[in-house]
Amino acid sequence: MDVTITPSRVAGRARAPPSKSYTHRAILAAGYASQTTVRDALWSADTKATARAVSLFGGNVDRDDDSLEVEGFDGQPGVPDDVIDCENSGTTMRLVTAAAALADGTSVLTGDGSLRSRPQGPLLEAIADLDGEAFSTRGNGQAPLVITGPISGTEVSIPGDVSSQYITALLMAGAVTEGGLEIDLETELKSAPYVDITLEVLDDFGVEAEKTKTGFAVDGGQRYDPADGEYRVPGDFSSISYLLAAGAIAGDDGVHVEGAKPSAQGDTAIVEIVEEMGADVDWNRDEGTIDVSATDLEGVEVSVEDTPDLLPTIATLGAVADGDTRITNAEHVRYKETDRVSAMAEELGKMGVETTEEQESLTVHGSESTLEGAAVDGRGDHRIVMALALAGLVADGETTIAGAEHVDVSFPNFFETLEELGATLDREN
Predict the structure, then answer these.
(1) Residue 397, C-beta contacts closer than 8 angstroms, at least 6 positions apart
(2) Of 27, 78, 104, 129, which is most buried with the most CB atoms under 10 A?
(3) Does the annotation flag 21 for ligand binding?
(4) Which residue in 36, 383, 420 sits closest to 239, CA to CA?
(5) Angle at the Cα of 360 (from 357 to 362), degrees rounded to 5?
(6) For the chain, how long is the longest CA-to-CA vector?
(7) Ligand-binding site membership of 303 (annotated)
């Protein structure tokens, strides 16, 4: 689907979708449990992939409005009777890879072309070190993956600077092993707040895990059992970033965002970033609301070491701001659905934005740029699509985004929300 955006001002109320990160973990945690109701779940392309994996392991997931009724496999995933297709969801593949290592037999995981190019090698090596079998069919550390369990080891070391999802996957699986798991980090952990999310979800499901001096540890023999058999998913700050940015660059009369209660999400940093750039921001943490309105923005320097999903949003804000916006510690952002550093540099470049790209950073030269409408490519990446849509709100002329349907991954009603806020856009299938 192509979406064409006409320059627009936005105002009004918008509700953030539920967190994709929390929903993934909640669905799999409910799979490890016996019977759970997951309320306010995000039902998107990615989270559906995790739900299908739970079903293939012997559980069942039924959707009822915004809730999921999950019949779990009670800590003992069965051998799937079909290949687990993770489609475009890296979170699904990594979390499910560790779950597959618990099954007494062989599981096969694959995904679309983008997912089959993403690194899984360190997690495969960790499973092998835990006495399981794990390999890439192409021998390159990328899907398709073949996993044979059950694992039996209790100690493993793994790099922390490739993906925090490896640690999440091992912690979630380790809780239901006999001996538990100690995870030593070989390198500094990047995207650390995502492991904090995992620890929070585990705690809500009655599972104890902890940080150690060298990494993380989880005792074995635990049961996933949330209070009253329910878990509620919080709002998604990665998605909130687009609503805040829309208000900061085009919300003369203000945008009111609901569903923004504090949580362990590192992407809550977007509130401080937008405020530091000069937007008028008021976050009522108790009510879970944020009000933001547009003012002249100034460039800033921001590290995305712990917040990789914010890079596309910050890049668009930088294109509108005066001065330079330098986004640092960004090398790991190159290993997402697409290389988001290059993607934003190249697509914003089509719109007249000057950037300087280095291996670990992206600098957006706002004062040297003139945002102009153009035909751009979403690169099959939901976050690139949404960030470019924001740029289209304030560009001179129409902006057409190819592949706009990929917002279904995390924010299925993104364009409807923009329209409700006053944006003018056309869809063409």
Answers:
(1) 7, 372, 373, 374
(2) 27
(3) yes
(4) 383
(5) 35
(6) 61
(7) no
Structure tokens that stand for 238 in this block: 């990665």
Q: Say yes or no to pLDDT of 65 above 90.
A: no
**Contacts of 219 by beta carbon, 8 Å cutoff, 6+ apart:** 175, 180, 208, 209
State the amino acid at position 124 in one-letter form: L
Report d(CA 129, CA 56) in Å as an integer.
25
Is 359 marked as a binding-site residue? no
Is residue 383 marked as binding? yes
Nearest residue to 253 (alpha-carbon basis) of 399, 367, 422: 422
Residue-wise pLDDT tens digits, 223-255: 999 999 999 999 999 999 999 999 999 999 999
Q: Which domains does the chain have, with CATH numbers?
A: 2-17+235-428 (3.65.10.10), 20-232 (3.65.10.10)
What tokens appear for 148 in the block? 């044979």
- pTM above the 0.90 mark? no
Element (H, E) at 188: none
307-324 per-position pLDDT tens digit:
999 999 999 999 999 999
What's the token pair of residue 68? 């999921």
Asked whether residue 67 is marked as a ligand-binding residue, the answer is: no
From 40, 204, 236, 309, the catalytic residue: 309
d(CA 158, CA 267): 24
**Contact status, residue 284 vs residue 44, Cβ threshold 8 Å:** no
- Which among 363, 335, 326 has a CA at the least distance from the CA of 165? 335
CA distance 11 to 103: 51
Question: How far apart, in whole angstroms, are the C-alpha atoms of residue 89 and residue 349?
Answer: 28
Determine whether the annotation assigns residue 165 to a binding site: yes
Identify whether 309 is a catalytic site residue.
yes
Q: How many CB atoms lie within 10 A of CB 426?
A: 11
Structure tokens at 424: 């003018």
